[in-house]
Specification:
single chain, about 190 residues, alpha/beta, 9 helices, globular, five-stranded parallel β-sheet, Rossmann fold
Length: about 190
């Protein structure tokens, strides 16, 4: 049975330290509840932009770990970002991919290729330093310390079920421009 996205996010939250986090689409509602005051900026409303936004943050702040919480449908929208991230080679970036095989936010339509899309192979082919598939919460919890300290970019494909809430059912939360201003103020003051 696939892990619950909320459980994976809880495990990451417990281990993340002072990382800047970029939740997207179906990870956003749960992340707002799990870590309401952390250093994060949600990527909702521009599907496929999480890895690029995370890359910009990682390059701007190489002193901080940056964690991207991407969806498989979202990443497929901007698949070329894998090569862009790999080419920039940010050592501080961990790209968590929540793989459920559907566009959950817009109604759970199957993504092209469904569950058979191999993002680990694509990330390795694009030039990520490492890429892993994890299907069990206990394995994620065991591997998190090494994943969060390893030299990036790293892709971690998490095999998950559907999230309890999506931005469409939970609301969009704080507008993006306000999230950016809050994050900027936190990072400048940090």
């Amino acid at each position: 049975m696939a892990m619950k996205p909320e459980d994976a996010l809880q495990a990451i939250a417990a281990a993340r330290g002072d990382a800047v986090c970029v939740p997207t689409m179906t990870t956003s509602p749960a992340w707002r509840t799990i870590a309401p005051d952390d250093l994060s900026v949600g990527c909702v409303g521009f599907m496929g932009g999480a890895s690029s936004l995370g890359l910009g943050l990682a390059l701007a702040r190489p002193d901080r770990r940056v964690l991207v919480f991407d969806g498989d449908g979202s990443l497929l929208m901007q698949l070329g970002s894998l090569a862009t991230v790999a080419g920039a080679a940010p050592r501080n970036l961990v790209h968590f991919l929540f793989k459920n095989g559907v566009y959950h936010t817009s109604g759970a339509q199957e993504i092209p290729g469904g569950g058979g899309v191999d993002f680990v192979l694509m990330a390795k082919g694009a030039g990520y330093r490492a890429a892993y598939a994890i299907g069990e919460l206990s394995e994620l919890e065991r591997r998190l310390p090494s994943l969060l300290s390893a030299e990036g970019p790293i892709l971690v494909e998490l095999h998950t079920g559907l999230a309890d809430k999506t931005p469409m059912t939970a609301g969009m939360g704080t507008p993006f421009h306000q999230q950016v201003e809050r994050l900027r103020a936190q990072l400048i003051g940090a």
